[in-house]
């Protein structure tokens, strides 16, 4: 799908930053596309870009309003419908990464039709996927895995793409979630694929490549998360990852949205190797990515140093401190 840029980012009235992670991700990695934000009363998220009315957004050249939010079940709240209809009436296309299809809501479908505007459901694809085969294919692949949801798997993969390219690697980010698709312009939202075809979809996202080409595959969920482990496992098998990076948020004690206790980094390493060996017996960890945003710098550096000592892997916050150590490890473990 071709989504017209630039964007007006719609945040609705979400209760916190994490609920608007799609908008934050697009703004962080494609700021030149994000002209402004449209927030409803009570919204607790703020991208730090101008608040615009719909009319102001159109006057500034916005082409598409992006529903930049995530929530459990991917539903569109009823009280947002009128705002989306108003955006269509103002002359904007609308794009969404939610599970619910925009066109399935009669008021939105009618508004799009009468205004000749496009509706983009990024989480849904018209592509037909085979079941995964697990057959070894050329090229090298790295998968980001997590101790939980929303811990930095996408940001880590994107940071590695940038860092590896700067070092001369042939490397591409491969999107498996709606935000990644918005950022990269390609990929598939794995959590919207029928379960039998998840691993096949990942094989499609990361096809055969030149022997030294790296696909940096965006991880989803966690093998330990009661809600999303099925998606994470299918992704792991389809990726046939040669390498993986463990992503972690150190201030959490419970997994997001459930009462399950957060696993340790070592537990994630062990289970990833055990499960990933089904389609790639050579799978190995090459680094730890920790989201230290909530920590002062001295505490963050001490935590990373401890993680390196305990696990024998380079540890960093990819956004705050870069990915040089992990790239060094990749270069040493997988010489060209």
From TrEMBL:
<protein>
    <recommendedName>
        <fullName>EBNA-1 nuclear protein</fullName>
    </recommendedName>
</protein>
<feature type="domain" description="D-glutamate N-acetyltransferase-like C-terminal">
    <location>
        <begin position="131"/>
        <end position="327"/>
    </location>
</feature>
<dbReference type="Pfam" id="PF07755">
    <property type="entry name" value="DUF1611"/>
</dbReference>
<dbReference type="InterPro" id="IPR035086">
    <property type="entry name" value="DgcN-like_C"/>
</dbReference>
<dbReference type="Pfam" id="PF17396">
    <property type="entry name" value="DUF1611_N"/>
</dbReference>
<dbReference type="InterPro" id="IPR027417">
    <property type="entry name" value="P-loop_NTPase"/>
</dbReference>
<dbReference type="InterPro" id="IPR011669">
    <property type="entry name" value="DgcN-like"/>
</dbReference>
<dbReference type="InterPro" id="IPR035402">
    <property type="entry name" value="DgcN-like_N"/>
</dbReference>
<feature type="domain" description="D-glutamate N-acetyltransferase-like N-terminal">
    <location>
        <begin position="40"/>
        <end position="124"/>
    </location>
</feature>
């Amino acid at each position: 799908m071709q989504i017209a840029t630039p964007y007006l980012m719609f945040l609705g009235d979400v209760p916190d930053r994490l609920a608007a992670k799609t908008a934050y991700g697009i703004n962080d990695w494609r700021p030149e596309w994000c002209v402004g934000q449209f927030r409803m009363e009570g919204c607790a998220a703020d991208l730090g870009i101008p608040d615009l009315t719909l009319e102001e957004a159109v006057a500034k050249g916005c082409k598409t309003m992006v529903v930049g939010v995530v929530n459990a079940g991917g539903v569109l709240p009823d009280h947002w419908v009128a705002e989306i209809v108003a955006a269509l009436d103002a002359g904007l296309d609308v794009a969404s990464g939610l599970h619910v299809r925009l066109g399935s809501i009669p008021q939105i479908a009618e508004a799009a039709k009468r205004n000749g505007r496009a509706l983009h459901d990024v989480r849904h694809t018209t592509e037909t996927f085979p079941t995964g085969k697990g057959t070894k294919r050329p090229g090298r692949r790295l998968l980001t895995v997590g101790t939980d949801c929303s811990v930095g798997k996408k940001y880590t993969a994107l940071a590695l793409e940038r860092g590896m390219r700067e070092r001369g690697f042939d490397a591409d980010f491969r999107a498996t979630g709606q935000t990644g698709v918005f950022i990269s312009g390609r990929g598939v939202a794995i959590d919207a694929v029928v379960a039998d075809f998840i691993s096949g979809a990942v094989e499609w996202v990361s096809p055969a490549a030149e022997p030294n080409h790296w696909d940096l595959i965006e991880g989803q969920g966690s093998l330990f998360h009661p809600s999303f482990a099925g998606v994470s496992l299918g992704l792991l098998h389809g990726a046939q990852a040669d390498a993986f990076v463990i992503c972690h948020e150190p201030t959490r004690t419970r997994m997001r949205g459930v009462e399950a206790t957060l696993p340790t980094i070592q537990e994630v390493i062990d289970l990833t190797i055990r499960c990933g060996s089904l389609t790639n017996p050579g799978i190995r960890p090459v680094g730890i990515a920790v989201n230290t945003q909530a920590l002062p710098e001295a505490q963050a550096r001490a935590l990373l140093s401890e993680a390196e000592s305990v696990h024998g892997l380079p540890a960093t916050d990819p956004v705050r401190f870069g990915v040089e150590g992990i790239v060094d490890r990749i270069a040493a473990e997988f010489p060209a």
